[in-house]
Amino acid sequence: MTIYFYKVWQPYGCFSNFSPHGIKIQGTYWSTVEHYYQAQKFVGSKDAAIIPLIHQATTPEEAAALGRCSSRQMRADWHQVKTQVMREAVLKKFLTHTEIRDILLGTGEELLVENSPNDYFWGCGINKTGENHLGKVLMSVREEIRKRFSVTAIAEKHLQY
Ligand SMILES: Nc1c(N[C@@H]2O[C@H](COP(=O)(O)O)[C@@H](O)[C@H]2O)[nH]c(=O)[nH]c1=O
């Protein structure tokens, strides 16, 4: 059964990048994945001064609004790197917060889909034909965490003997 998620207050809301689960990346703490993701759009661009404002935004909605402002110039390579940026942040989120890690692992092999009505890249869009890259990132993170944990469990078992 496909698992759809979108808003934080809906089922599986912890899969949303707007969920209140902070991450620390390269020594900097970000209140949500969305704050981090939006800020990365401007790394090395002439509008990099927006980064601290995104960092300090009081809500992920505010961070997203700042990052989506079309009059600002994003880094030239954004479309090449954005999926990797997102994966790094989402992986960090689920490695940091055990309670939501268990929810992610508990989805087994189900298909995860960001049910965004207007985003055909990260989500599935209103007609469900979108590319669903956030769902794909989450499924890839689920797989990676499972692998990491099984390696740790095997190593711990060996240490017992
Ligand atoms: N969850 C969620 C959204 N979806 C998120 O928006 C981000 C994409 O932003 P951009 O690349 O600027 O279009 C990405 O993190 C995607 O998961 N958007 C919203 O306005 N509200 C929301 O509750």
From TrEMBL:
<dbReference type="InterPro" id="IPR037238">
    <property type="entry name" value="YbiA-like_sf"/>
</dbReference>
<protein>
    <submittedName>
        <fullName>NADAR family protein</fullName>
    </submittedName>
</protein>
<dbReference type="Pfam" id="PF08719">
    <property type="entry name" value="NADAR"/>
</dbReference>
<feature type="domain" description="NADAR">
    <location>
        <begin position="4"/>
        <end position="146"/>
    </location>
</feature>
<dbReference type="InterPro" id="IPR012816">
    <property type="entry name" value="NADAR"/>
</dbReference>
